[in-house]
Amino acid sequence: NNEVQLELRLMAYGSDQILLLARDISRIHRLEEMRRDFVANVSHELKTPLTVVRGYVEMIQTTEHALDPHWLQAFNTIESQVTRMDRLVEQLLILSRVEIQADVETNTPIAMPRLISQLVDDAQWLNQEKQHKITLELDESLGITGVDTEIKSACANLISNAIAYTQDSGNIQVCWRQDGNKGIFSVKDDGPGIRPEDINRLTERFYRVDKSRSRDTGGSGLGLAIVKHVLHHHNAELGISSKVGKGSEFVIYFEQSRLIDLSETQVQEGA
Ligand code: ADP
Question: What range(s) does the Histidine kinase domain occupy (predicted)?
């Protein structure tokens, strides 16, 4: 549309002069919208060819004919790279969805204890070989209102990061509770920690502290960007505290207006 969006700045100089600056930001907004649409479309279009490639690789891997070990290794590498690309495309799609859906209603009741324990179970099952000790502390009656797919994605990202970046047999504490008037979801690990200069940049798209390490863990650098957008959409905040060599803690603070008592609210299965 042809609406013009203006950014206004009012500045006072001394006690008798005022300066009003008006900047036309319509073009910036339109470009930003085009960028989002472009990323969403490209990600969507990449899904099909990736699925086809994966299908053929799996077919070859499971062929009845004996494969030369070199070929087998090549196909295993193709498979793991396709899995990485798949994950990246999936993350890009989620990110563009949460960026675009900023005005979707966020009022569905969510049973947080059930959602969180399911995420922890899944993560533990997928990472059995790492033998992390995950402790879970949940306020069983505390829920929130929000978009369940988005909240699930934000919580899952924090849990999977703690698992990915903490050394084998490390300790991870996942907690959901009310503190004063806030609902608090926290994930604490005794992993490598993050330097103060990196902490402020973690939620930027594609920002990874140690690129080679992150590549090993299958990371894309999009996880915390997704978390940031989801939280913005839910007027929630992210706190990160970390000490190099000691560990990190990621905390989501939900406003009181989002909190619900699950013993009094009917929540649909899956939400
Ligand atoms: P990625 O897909 O690379 O994990 P994220 O946006 O989720 O992307 O995280 C950005 C970077 O923050 C990671 O690459 C990693 O370097 C760092 N990071 C995130 N969580 C932790 C953690 N629990 N401990 C140490 N470093 C972390």
Answer: 41-258
Q: Which atom of ligand 1 is nearest to the CA of 208?
A: 14
Which residues touch 130 (CB under 8 Å, ≥6 apart)? 163, 168, 169, 170
Contact between 228 and 116 (Cβ < 8 Å)? no
Which is higher by pLDDT, 252 or 129? 252
Q: How far is the CA of 128 from the centre of ligand 1 (A)?
A: 20
| 110-144 residue pLDDT tens | 999 999 999 999 998 888 888 999 999 999 999 99
Q: For residue 239, what are the contacts with CB-CB under 8 A and spacing of at least 6?
A: 249, 250, 251, 252, 253
∠ Cα 64 65 70 (to 5°) = 120
ipTM: 0.98
Please name the residue whose Cα sits nearest to atom 4 of ligand 1.
Answer: 219
Q: For a ligand 1 pocket test, name from 83, 159, 171, 214 the mutation site with the most ligand atoms within 8 angstroms of its C-beta.
A: 214
CA 246 – ligand 1 centroid, Å: 15
Q: How many angstroms separate the CA atoms of 102 and 104, rounded? A: 6
**Tens digits of residue pLDDT in 85-99:** 999 999 999 998 888
Pure H helices in 217-263 = 223-233
219 alpha carbon – ligand 1 mean position (Å): 8
| Residue 164 CA to ligand 1 centre (angstroms) | 8
What local confidence, expressed as pLDDT, does residue 128 receive?
87
Whether the CB of 247 sits within 6 Å of ligand 1: no
pTM across the whole model: 0.85
CB 33 within 8 A of CB 41: no
pLDDT over 60 (residue 271): no
Does the beta carbon of 170 sit less than 6 angstroms from any atom of ligand 1?
no
